[in-house]
Amino acid sequence: MLFGKSFHLPTLCCMFGTPLSPPSSSNPSHRSPMASSVRIAVVGDVHDDWNLQEDTKALQLLQPDLVLFTGKSCFFLFLRKDRVQLQLECLGEEHVGYRRVDYPSLKLSIVGGRPFSCGGEHLFRKALLDARSQVGLRQNGLLLSHGLDFSAYVLDLVLSYYGVNCNSSNRNDSLRYGIQDLDGSAKRIYEAALGAPEDHSVILLAHNGPTGLGSKINDICGRDWVFGGGDHGDPDLAHAISHLKETTQLRIPLVVFGHMHKELAYGNGLRKMIVVGDDNTIYLNGAIVPRVKRLGNHQTANTQSSMNNKTSISSPNAEDTVRAFTLVEISGGKLQKIAETWVSVTGDETSLQEEHILYRREHAGTENPMQ
């Protein structure tokens, strides 16, 4: 992979495609950015199931304050370094791998984990983490965390809206990340979180989750493709989180990631998608794949592999679909509810089709994972 990302607008956030509202919008229907409650929409591994118009409609219904993308698996595509370079140059400082971005109006800080992670005990594509790159400048509030391999056409759709020009005037020479090993990666994640405002909650956004959350095939980061399972989490992410909790007063209520698909390999059932840690940090896997169900004559497309289940970015005659998001509700700095949410999009009509509650905070303050 393997990037994750988040885009923030004054009241809403979107990943790519037509924004839910222009950056200068004062639409009164939008929730106040100073509200004590915050709604986050998590989009797991996309695997080409993103439609510019249709997902915008769904997000307009959900009205999130922030949208976090965990990325999509692009193993073969990422072997083409030029495509990675193109994205990094165009996105510039909006890419927040190993970085922190603060949202004062939401009292949140998003800290990015390791780019290109594929899970396990080794760095994936080490050369990409250590290669030289040309990084552009921050543009108009458009923000990415770990990157995503989508086509140059999609980049044009996003960047042209925000007025981002991917020419040489937007590029500065720098080391891409300078990461040689997992210890160095853990240090970068740790350092990125330092300095978060005292009144902010910190959310870690990574492509893959940390180690230590189980080794059964259906655990949140468990290997489901080999006999006997195994913990396929990222040790550097786990170490960074542990070190932050031991040495700082930062509040880390939520760690968001994907990569490990909800539907297990070989038809072995479904994965646990949420874990509440002993210290009440919640680990959330958003990788619902495929995230789009096609209705009517296209219903059988649900069972196709993601590589064969592509959605046009700008199709003028989009199918009737149901689209998945994971909604996180925060109030008073505390997580209140997490739900797998499916939105029906039929033409210009949208409605909430299904909601599966994964977590609800009890009134007495106890944590209640609903899995």
Description:
Helix 5 (182-193) packs across helix 6. This protein has 6 helices and 16 strands. It is globular, with a radius of gyration of 19 Å. Helices cover 17% and strands 25% of the residues. By secondary structure, the chain is α+β, with helices and mostly antiparallel strands. It has helices at 52-62, 81-91, 126-130, 152-161, 182-193, 235-247; strands spanning 5-7, 37-43, 66-69, 100-103, 108-112, 132-135, 172-175, 201-205, 251-257, 274-276, 282-285, 292-294, 321-331, 334-346, 349-361, 367-369. Strands 1, 2, 3, 12, 13, 14, 15 and 16 form an 8-stranded mixed sheet that branches. Strands 4-5-8-9-11-10 form a 6-stranded mixed sheet, covered by helices on one side. Strands 6-7 form a two-stranded antiparallel ribbon. InterPro entries: DevT-like, Metallo-depent_PP-like. This is Calcineurin-like phosphoesterase domain-containing protein.
Question: How would you concisely characterize the structure shown here?
Answer:
This protein is α+β, with helices and mostly antiparallel strands and 371 residues long.
